[in-house]
Design goal:
mainly alpha, about 90% helix, about 50 residues
């Protein structure tokens, strides 16, 4: 492999790692949002506190 190919592979590996971090962060946000929505729905099902 030439130096240009090696440099390109490193660039692609770095971009892939960044995408993995972004996907993990988005998954955490989705989980958080799902918990909030589930909590809200549960509160609606139970009705207002008396």
């Amino acid at each position: 492999m030439g130096p240009a190919l090696e440099a390109r592979q490193e660039e692609v590996a770095t971009a892939l790692e960044q995408l993995r971090r972004e996907v993990a962060e988005l998954a955490e946000r989705v989980d958080f949002t799902e918990r909030l929505l589930a909590k809200n729905r549960e509160g609606e099902r139970l009705g207002p506190p008396r």
